[in-house]
Structure formats: structure tokens, C-alpha cells
Amino acid sequence: MKYDVIVIGAGSGGGALATRLAEDPNRSVLLLEAGPDYVDLEQTPDDLKFGYAPRASEMGAPHNWSFTGKGSATRSEDVVVPRGKVVGGTSAINGQVFLRGVPEDYDSWAEWGNDEWSFVKCLPYFRKLETDTDIVDDFHGFDGPVPVRRHKREAWLPLAEAFHVSAMSSGYAEVYDHNHPDSSGVGPLPMNNPNGVRMSTALTYITNNRHRLNFTIRGNVLVRRILFDGARACGVEVESGGETFTVESEQVVLSAGAVASPQILMLSGVGPAGHLQEMGVPVVKDLPGVGQNLRDHPLCAVRVKTKPDFPLDPDAPRIQTVLRYTATGSDLRNDMQILPSSFSTPLGGDPYAEEGIRFTCILELAKSSGEIRLRSTTPGDNPDINCRHLEEEVDRERMREAVRMSFQFMEHESFRDIVEDAISPTREEIESDDALDAWMLETVDIGQHLSGTCKMGPASDPMAVVDQFGRVHGIENLRVADASVMPDVIRANTNLTTIMIGERVADWIIQQTE
Predict the structure, then answer these.
(1) Which residue is catalytic, options 140, 389, 449, 473?
(2) pLDDT tens by residue, 334-372
(3) H or E segment and range at residue 266
């Protein structure tokens, strides 16, 4: 059977893109996903449906690829790299934060040769994809698939309230709408989980369009490689039920995410020629940038023991508020976040079993970057993921400030009835830069916002993999539409922007942009 378009990956980008393409009844669309497909909310398992318990992104969870990778150069243990393995992709296992980047993120993309990606041109698609249930203005959507809400202050838990008060007493502005272009300060996070239900692209885009006769969704199908006729993509080779099949198409869109998209390209012969030859993969197109430019939000968690009588409800929201601010001396607005969260159900044997709350310090625009390479030629295997977190001094400097700020917040009167003492780092470890750097490099973790590994850019950029319309350089009828095409990570969680990317690329396919 031959389709007009095959979309590989049913996550944030692929779910949105495939759904929009299928709105034209004259276009046949096949959406492929390596994980299972749950057709509606009733059939969706609780770990996907409810965002706080149990945690769908934990290592070994049933809908998680559970990849691992290298964090910093000196970290003794690998970092866990959660990736969704289910229709809905990582949008079905994430933390449900629905935050846009700052306008400067998208304007920078435009300045780097992608003029269609300025904030002004992206804004209509931000509005198109959402229904903001709290705010009605020109910056927010009111009839899109994804519902957006904020925890009302009267429903904040004591941790959120204490953090809000302590941050404001330190001079940070109070912010209600973190998705406003000019926002900076402390306030509630925009989230896509009304009544605690995680609204993935499976539930918001795909489910309501399953009735379309031209829209075929297939779960439990592993894509082995993209097929080519010369330099033209013409289909895919897949594995399902222990058998291998080939499926033909006029176009292929790769939306498997910042890990699997470069992996599938390399397995298909598109990538750095030297590396492909080392792995025994026949080279279809030498594209040195495939798998390079790995971007993320490195984070360090300040773990805190709470007082014995402080309430910790395992069914309560883990996160409600956030501080977004600009690091001292930085010219990058909102390049840092501090996120207070509660953890009342530690894993058995966890050395931080006494942890009650934490301050997660997040570097939103790191200078350091990593890479993804093949570890084997077996589809679905854990690729070689090297994040290279905190390699640059400017990254360590900003992270040190955030960790020390967290300790300052804990000293505020609002935390008097909450905090017993810090667990990690200790107060001694934050006293000198050398000691704090050693702690950070050992504990730094991924922000689960991997991006940039198939960066968009003009053909004159030797590391660009796709042009600004998502088309793979030097290959016909093949596009990429997910977080991997971001030239740099945005200063926000990536789910919302990845959906926007899917919406935009779908529009270009519909318009047949040349």
C-alpha cells in the first residue's frame, strides 16, 4: 500500500503534524509509533493519564524508552534519558508544563537564516494550538486543541506559597502569565493538565480525528530505516509483530524526537559519512550535522529535608510555581529557572530518602552542547548520548548562583515551618566555587528537553540538517518536524514549541511551499 505521507513518531511534533495533514480528505496519512496506541481517555493507563502518580518518565516505566547517556565529563553515573514510547510520545509522559520560549529565542532562529521562524510569525501557531482557559488576549488562543491552565493561588500548596513570598521579597516581580512575551519573575506555571489529566497530543490531536478514513494510526511499529530511490525518500522499512515490512509513500516526515530522529537518519545512511562508514552503514547523503548540536536544559537539584510535621501528599501536584530570571551579568533574558517541587514517595534504597522538597535549578540557555552517535545498527537500541553538561565556565557560573539563591530562599521566614536542613549539597559544599563545581558536575542531570540534533539552517551552514521548512538538505521528499530541528533550545520546556513546529511544517506541506 502506498500513502501520500508517512509520519514517523506520534509525539508532540508528529501527532500535531499528522492530524493537520489528515484534515484534507484527499491526502492519505500513515502515522507510525513504536509504542502502543490507546484510542481514547478511558483506555489510557493511569501512568499516562494522571501526571503525578505513578511517574511515567521513571526508568523502566512501561511507556518509556529508558535510554541512558553521559551527563557531564566527570559524572560517575550515566543520566537517565526519558523518551515516550506510546502514541503521544514524550508528551504522554512529561511534566505537563506548557511554557513558550521568550520571543528572543525564535528571533534568533530567524537571524541565523530561518526568517520564517521569528516570534511574530510563530505567534499565530502558538494561538492556533491552544485554548487558554485563564487569559483572553491577542497573545493567547481560545479554540485550539490543547487546554492551558494555571494553579490558582488559593489552591497553592504551602511550598508554592512560601517560594512565591521568598522570591518576591528578594526583588523578583510577580507574574501571573509566564506565556506573555515580556514576562519575567515568579508565579504559576502554565500547564496542560486540567483536573490533573495530562493532555498529550494523543488525547488532544489524534483521538478526535481517528474517524477520518484517510488517517491510519499504527502503534507497536518500529521504523528500521527510511528507504530511498537515489536521493529521494520513497518509503520506510518497519518491524511489527516479529515481521519486517516496507511501506511506500510520496513524502516521509520524521518526527521521532531529538534522540530517535538523528538515530533513524543515520541508520538510513544520512549523517556524518565517516561515522556511518565506521558503523557499516551505506552512505546515502553526507550530512555532518546529524546528531550534533545536542542541546538541553542542564539542572541541579537542591534536595531538602522537611520538618516532621510538614504535610507531603503523594497525590498533590509536584509543581505549581516557577521563578524565571536573568543570571547576574548575563545578556540572555530569562536564562535561568528555579522550580520548587515536592517529593513524598522516594524510591526504595534512594540515598535521598529523607527528601521532602527540592529546588530544581535549571540552565535555560546553556553554551555547552553535546552529540548523539550510533552505538549499534540495531533500530531501537540506546544510541550514544553525550550531553557534555556544564563544560563551559559561563554555564557553571550561572548554575552556582542558582544553587546559592535556593539556599537564600530557604532562609526566608516563609520556610521556617517547612525546612529542616539541606541534604544535597551541604552547606559546606556551597561555600567555595571549587567544592560547588565538584558537586554540580557529579549531580547535574538532563532537563528532559533534548533538542537541536537535526538543526535547521541554510545550505551555507555546514552543520544544518534541514532548511527552515523542515526539508532535509540534499534529499527529496524527506522532512524533519520535531525538537531536533531547533537551532538552539528555547528558554522554556520544549513540548509546546515542538507542537508549534509540527503545526508550521504541516502548513508548509499543505501549501506545498517550495
Answers:
(1) 449
(2) 999 999 998 764 443 455 678 899 999 999 999 999 999
(3) helix 257-267
